[in-house]
Structures are given as C-alpha cells and as structure tokens.
Amino acid sequence: MHSALIIDDEPDIRELLEITLGRMQIACSSASDLRAAKALLKDQAFDICLTDMRLPDGDGIDLVAYIQRHYPALPVAVITAHGSIETAIQALKAGAFDFLTKPVDLNLLRTLVESALKVAGSQPKFADLLIGESKVVRDITVKISKLARSQAPVYISGESGVGKELVARMIHDQGPRNAQPFVPVNCGAIPHDLMESELFGHRRGSFTGATADKEGLFHAADGGTLFLDEVAELPLNMQVKLLRAIQEKKIRPVGDQRELPVNVRILSATHKNLAERVKQGAFREDLYYRINVIELHVPPLRKRREDIPALVQHILGRLSANAGLSSAALAPEALEILMRYDFPGNIRELENILERALTLCEGTVVRPEDLQLPERHADEGVPPGDGAGPDANLDDYLGDLERSRIMEALERTRWNRTAAAKLLGITFRQLRYRLKKLGLD
C-alpha cells in the first residue's frame, strides 16, 4: 500500500486530501507545519508528499528544498492559491514534482498522484542514446534523468541540428508519462491562421472548411508530452492562448463554448535566443518564464569534438544497416578532417555528410575525397568571409561578426540609425538594443 504525507494548516483541506487519497488506497499521514512534517519524514518513508505553500513556520518552497537535500527520491507537489503561478514556478525550480491551485480540482489531484507514484516506484535511468563519453554528454545524461522525474516545463536551447528533439524524447521516455504519447510540433511549419485549430482543435462549422470536428495536438498528447519545437515562431496572439492553456490546464477548441481539461507536460525548444526575443517584444515575457522553468542547453558539436569518432561509428553503422551493406568505416585521414571541421549544422550535418560519403565511396571505406566538405576553415565557428550562412539573420551573428556588420551599415548610412536598421533588416528598437549590448551606443 502506498503512503502519502499531507502538510496543510487548514484541517478541512487535510481532511479532503486524506479522504480522496484514502479512496485510492493510499495511507495518509498529516502535519500542520514544517516542524511536524520533518519529524514524520524522519520516522517513516513516503511515496508522495503534498504540501500547502503557506505554513505557520515557513513555506512550501522551504520544504521542497529540504526534501530535495535529504529525500531526493520523494516526489513533492505543492498546493498554491489560485493565481499564484509565480510562486508555483519557484517551487518547480526548487525541485517540486508538480503543483495544484486552490480550490483543488480532485480529478487533477488524482492524476497528479498517479503520476507521482510512478516516479516514486521507478529507479533513475541513465540515457544511452546520447553518443559519446565527453563530460558534456555525461552532464546532459544526468540532467535528463533528473528532469524526467519532474513535471516541470523544460526549455531546451541549442543550435540547429544538435539533437534537441532527441533530448525531449529521452526526457519523456524516462518519465512517468512514457506509456502515453509524445507529440512533437514544429511551430514554424504551421500557418499562423491554422495554428489555433492545430493546437486546440475545432468544431464543425466553426470556419470555412471545418466540415467535421477535429481534435487538436493538445488532445492528442493528453496524458503524455507535447514538444513545441521552434517555439520562438509562435505569433503573439497564439502565445496568449498557449499561456492560458499551460496555466489553466484547459483548452477551448475553435467554435466551442466549453473549456476541456488536458493533462500534458510541456517541453519546448528553439535555436534562437528566446531571451533576446523577449527584449525585442517578439515573445511574451510571461510565457517565456512559464515554459522556461528549467533550461537544458545542448552544446554544439564543435564543443564536444572528442565525441565525433563514436558518433561517426554509430551513424555509419546505422546507415550501412539501412542500406543492407556490410559495416562501413572511415579512413583515418577522413576522420582527421572531420575532427577539424566546425560543423555549423551540428550532428544533423554530420549525418548528411556521412550519408553522402557512403553513397559516393567505392567499397566500405570512406576516404577524404568522399566527404566533399564545403569550403570552410577548420576550427572556426563561422565560414570565412560571411559566417552567417545563406539562411541566417542578424540574430545568429555573434561577437565581432555582429559588431562588424552593424558598423558597416552605420558607415554606409552616415550614422543614420533609422536607415542603418532598415539596411540590416531589423527594427530601430532592435538596432538600439544591439548597439547598447555591444558598447557602441
């Protein structure tokens, strides 16, 4: 029989929680303050802890931090007043499993407890899908195992091609929702006028072409994980609706008057600098803090070059098997070239290079001439001359390259900032921010 620790200074709330959990065959112990709760924790083991945020001798965040230090395997959920989302986010950052708002929705409570019990009954797993033995890979592996045991939203940052969706899938697969759907969504690939319908669904007749009811992606991910890739591409009007869906855990399909409850964990990612997008007014600050409760940064391949040999072996083995060939290998000279290459497209580019090389090579040994790498200097983070690539914009420029471009535009426009901003393809406000950041203001 499972056991729960309930901490709340209101007897009615404790009784309600005890009755609800008791009907789930969970034995309950209760405390009215932190001191009594810590005494109970020392005396017996629990499978889940539910605590109010406001207690006579402290707050729920203090207890979350205490449990993280002394009982890290125990999932703890906090109960906070309605509208105190900022407080709940602080608790999630401190290590809370999840949160509920008052008045407590008993259906949400039961769902939360069931998920927490799955976490309590599992052993931490270590990911084996991140290839390599570098410290970077080991650190990410450990973080994934920890994040999988939480329900907190995770923002995965990193350049294009580093494997952000793979990391999101690993967090899902190692967590209590792994038996439910993992639904990836490329926010940049959905037309803006269809985005609300795609995410939340619609009712028949709600707009031209809506000939039948349609369930949205939130509903498809119900009970599981919704991965919002390229979240920076969301238009501002959809950011407001997404924020409400995340905070209220409810959605309203287009053309429907009702709000429907949903139970999804939100993971998000983008290759853009989301904090900078907030400063530019292109991304809502409240949504940013809601999805970025915990950030997991995936570094580029050029920052973990020691993993390239293992990645090459793994990718060539998979490509060979898919093509029905005997296992291919890389000539030492070819591997040396790859070890010096900067990989602006990261692991995705490495896969493309090896797939092309395997097609062109004679036999099963990939030689330097089979790689056909583009003209780039080794050990440089950008190609010579331009450095931005054909599809990049000013947001992707770094350091001296960004400074050089802005100075060139200012000189060409005789230091007219409005004209320089237009030349660079950005707004005057964006240029002013960049000038200040670079110390050119």
Would you kindly provide a brief summary of this structure?
By secondary structure, the chain is α/β, with parallel strands linked by helices. 44% of the residues lie in helices and 15% in strands. It has a 5-stranded parallel sheet with strand order 2-1-3-6-7, with helices on both faces. The protein has a 5-stranded parallel sheet with strand order 9-12-15-8-16. Strands 4-5 form a two-stranded antiparallel sheet.
Describe the secondary structure blueprint for this structure:
Elements: E1 2-7, H1 11-22, E2 26-31, H2 34-43, E3 48-52, E4 54-55, E5 58-59, H3 60-70, E6 76-80, H4 85-94, E7 98-101, H5 106-120, H6 135-148, E8 154-157, H7 164-173, E9 182-186, H8 195-200, E10 201-202, E11 214-215, H9 217-220, E12 225-229, H10 236-248, E13 250-251, E14 260-261, E15 265-270, H11 274-279, H12 285-291, E16 294-297, H13 308-323, E17 329-330, H14 332-340, H15 346-360, E18 365-366, H16 368-371, H17 399-412, H18 417-424, H19 428-437
Parallel strand pairs: 1-2, 1-3, 3-6, 6-7, 8-15, 8-16, 9-12, 12-15, 17-18
Antiparallel strand pairs: 4-5, 10-11, 13-14
Helix pairs in contact: 6-7, 13-15, 17-18, 18-19
Describe the structure.
The chain is of the alpha/beta class and 441 residues long. It is 44% helix and 15% strand. A 5-stranded parallel beta sheet has the order 2-1-3-6-7, with helices on both faces. Strands 9-12-15-8-16 form a 5-stranded parallel beta sheet. Helix 13 crosses helix 15.
